[in-house]
């Protein structure tokens, strides 16, 4: 970048996650309807069902991802929706993902995250009702030192 940093948006996903509630889905990148959400993985999340395939990339820590094939699809919505309790379905398996591991969260399934210690996950999805946008709070606009 050979320009004033204030002309660009940059947010540090680790900083965003450190300021977020566990499993809050904070948008850190957006392209039309698609969004990258930074998630602080800590403890056990509720179950969620994506309306389209989603991808979870573990950026820090170790995250267990539990997958269920739903008996009944959760419905059409953008992004993913929370499912109260444990949904009915067939267990698909468990992924133990560490930094750099990416996991497919397929449509028609439900997933739950568990992290014994705080970690960071980037979720590629479509912006939904639970996507939190707080651009004014997370975007770094100060020029880099020395510029």
What does this structure look like?
The protein is built from two helices and ten strands; from the N terminus they run αββββββββββα. The chain has helices at residues 13-18, 135-138, and strands spanning 25-31, 34-44, 47-50, 54-60, 62-70, 80-83, 89-98, 102-105, 109-126, 131-132. Strands 1, 2, 4, 5, 7, 8, 9 and 10 form an eight-stranded mixed sheet that branches. Strands 3-6 form a two-stranded antiparallel ribbon. The mean pLDDT is 89.
Index terms:
2 helices, single chain
Short recap of the structure:
Helices cover 7% and strands 52% of the residues.
The oligomeric state of the chains shown is single chain
SSE pattern, N- to C-terminal: HEEEEEEEEEEH
Q: What share of residues is helical?
A: under 10%
Overall mean pLDDT: 89
The count of helical stretches stands at 2
Cα end-to-end separation: 11 Å
- By DSSP, the count of extended strands is 10
Taking the sheet with the most strands, its summary is: 8 strands, mixed
Based on secondary structure, the structural category is mainly beta
| pLDDT < 50 runs, ≥5 residues | none
Provide the β-strand percentage band: over 45%
Radius of gyration: 16 Å
Q: What would you call the shape?
A: globular
Helix-strand blueprint:
Elements: H1 13-18, E1 25-31, E2 34-44, E3 47-50, E4 54-60, E5 62-70, E6 80-83, E7 89-98, E8 102-105, E9 109-126, E10 131-132, H2 135-138
